[in-house]
Specification:
Helix content of chain B: 25-40%
Radius of gyration of chain A: 14 Å
Distance between the termini of chain B: 48 Å
CATH class of the largest domain in chain B: Alpha Beta
Order of helices and strands of chain A: EEEEEHEHEHEE
CATH topology of chain A: Glucose Oxidase, domain 1
Distance between the termini of chain A: 41 Å
CATH superfamily of chain A: Phosphohistidine domain
Structural class of chain B: alpha/beta
Number of strands of chain B: 14
Strand content of chain A: 15-25%
Strand order of the largest sheet of chain A: 1-7-6-5-2-8-9
Number of strands of chain A: 9
Radius of gyration of chain B: 21 Å
Oligomer: heterodimer
Chain lengths: ~140, ~400
């Protein structure tokens, strides 16, 4: 097995991506859990139901649930409601696919980055972070 | 091919492997973007090189009047379906491709999408697929290749978490609810790890295993599970664990299961006054012939209540068999609507989404509140039948009592 890449899907080659963290307490299935038209979390069982992922750096431990999540993520990219980047601990083919096809089809690279548990825990909702070209995550401004 | 290779890189796979079959989930309409993708592939002349089945779509082509959605969106959904059929996929339109006559054999490398089908293929058939999502399913079908990663490989198929049941009443063991609720509990505990269930009193059948996988894949991201003595890679507990010690052993008591059930129910019930019911939805994943038989038996020829709409979703293949046995006629005559090619929680079909809906599926219970805005009650197949006839929610709470059997 090759070494686990920290950058599952690369972001735009031109520069780093910045955004405000939304750290989900539980993984979210985009299908059945995210309204692509608005970017809102619609999974009624999810602790952050009702919040918007649009433009945020979405932090969640892993992917979850439906294999249609790739399609919903792509549609969110088309609608302009997708997260700016996704940060996870567990590599997830379904999340990665949505991001890969967003790049292939629309030339919209949505970085998907893998971190370890300790790094994940440090990322708190409201933090301003930067996803560097190599996939490292740097906090610019910590939330109060 | 570029999508397959980029996914392989993203997963850290060193090589690709040949696959012999595919199941494509991308044919369900989620908006313009996935349609752009499909039509771009089709325009480039893509055709599948391995036998490829199609998952549910957004339309019931056999009963088109059931679709209550926006007509324009219906046309786009149809275009998406046509694009995949045009690339050579079989118009099977089912989320239970393992109920078709031809299904993958033990050890076969395949690329299946649809989370419940992935769990069933790996766990029950012993075929090998990773948890694929939309897009790569068709790309794998067109190239005949998939990343050599995840559940394709021996080392990732071993169980690491053991589940044992303790103190369940015999009525809970035989209830259709058990695999749904247990699967939901397991999915929430294990995430994407591989669980094994040990010590069931009787080896469960395919419908039980289907329900367990569907629930676990909705509540977590389970792509494979083992049941000792029932699934092909678990003749013994030791075999399921690959000779290793488990990372975790979880003992499940009746109260744990009841709490899991309670969390799935979003409708507020007030049993004393009798809760009026608007809808009963069955067949998620698509009902098998045997499940139809059980529901027909549970109804026992009684008509469903005039205020209740009852839907059963299934595949075309199963419907023909159910027609042949005369069950479809019986069900329609007592007021049941049979839905094919799609499912009641992925597209607008329900006539009434204001009243509470009852289901015998944890997966439907999980997703319907978010997708349809409906309030749900989870029950067993027989509770759903009793409730459909009575026009109100009828639950048998006695099954959650602690029994004498220790699993």
């Amino acid at each position: 097995m090759a070494e686990r890449p920290s950058l599952q899907v690369a972001g735009p080659p031109g520069g780093p991506v910045e955004g405000e963290v939304l750290h989900l307490d539980e993984p979210l299935s985009f299908w059945g859990g995210l309204d692509a038209a608005t970017g809102e979390v619609i999974d009624r069982h999810h602790p952050q139901s009702g919040l918007s992922v649009a433009g945020r750096v979405l932090v969640m431990r892993s992917g979850r649930g439906s294999s249609s999540a790739s399609s919903v993520l792509l549609e969110a990219v088309r609608c302009g409601t997708a997260p700016a980047a996704i940060v996870m601990v567990e590599p997830d083919a379904i999340v990665a696919l949505g991001a890969i096809v967003a790049d292939e089809l629309y030339g919209w690279p949505l970085p998907v980055v893998l971190v370890n548990e300790a790094e994940l825990a440090k990322l708190r909702t409201g933090d301003q972070v930067r996803i560097e070209l190599d996939g490292s995550v740097r906090t610019i401004n910590a939330a109060l | 091919m570029r999508v397959v290779v980029r996914l392989a890189e993203a997963l850290g796979a060193e090589e690709l492997l040949d696959i012999s079959a595919a199941h494509v989930d991308s044919c369900l309409y989620h908006g313009r973007a996935p349609l752009d993708f499909a039509e771009r592939l089709a325009a480039d002349g893509a055709t599948v090189v391995v036998p490829t089945t199609l998952n549910v779509s957004s339309l019931d082509l056999l009963h088109p009047d059931l679709y209550r959605g926006d007509p324009e969106e219906g046309l786009l959904a149809r275009r998406l379906m046509d694009a995949y059929v045009g690339m050579g996929c079989r118009p099977t339109w089912t989320c239970a491709p393992y109920q078709l006559e031809e299904r993958p054999a033990f050890g076969e490398q395949i690329a299946w999408a649809e989370s419940n089908a992935v769990a069933f293929a790996n766990s029950v058939l012993g075929a090998r697929t990773d948890r694929y999502g939309d897009f790569v399913d068709i790309c794998a079908a067109v190239t005949g290749r998939a990343p050599a990663a995840g559940l394709h490989l021996d080392r990732n198929r071993r169980a690491t978490v053991v589940f044992r049941l303790g103190g369940l009443a015999p009525e809970l063991y035989t209830s259709s609810l058990l695999p749904h609720v247990l699967g939901t509990l397991i999915g929430a505990v294990v995430g994407n790890r591989v669980p094994v269930i040990d010590g069931l009193p009787d080896p469960p059948g395919e419908d039980w295993l289907k329900a367990l996988g569907a629930a676990a894949a909705s509540a977590g991201s389970v792509g494979m599970f083992h049941v000792v003595g029932a699934t092909p890679e678990a003749p013994t507990l030791d075999a399921a664990l690959g000779g290793h010690q488990p990372a975790e052993v979880v003992v499940v008591a009746p109260d744990d299961l009841r709490r899991t059930r309670d969390r799935l129910n979003t409708a507020r019930l007030d049993g004393a006054t009798g809760d009026a019911l608007a809808t009963v939805s069955l067949g998620t994943p698509h009902y098998s012939v045997a499940e139809f038989g059980r529901f027909v038996e549970a109804l026992g020829g009684r008509r469903v209540h005039p205020e209740v709409d009852v839907y059963i979703s299934t595949g075309r293949g199963v419907l023909s068999e159910v027609e042949e046995r005369g069950w479809a006629e019986i069900l329609r005559s007592v007021g049941v609507t049979i839905v094919t090619d799609t499912c009641t929680y992925v597209t607008p079909i329900l006539a009434d989404t204001t009243g509470p809906a009852m289901t015998d599926s944890a997966k439907w219970a999980y997703y319907a509140p978010g997708n349809l805005g409906v309030e749900v009650v989870l029950g067993s197949t027989s509770e759903c039948a009793e409730s459909a006839v009575a026009g109100r929610v009828v639950l048998d709470e006695a099954i959650w009592a602690t029994g004498s059997h220790d699993g």
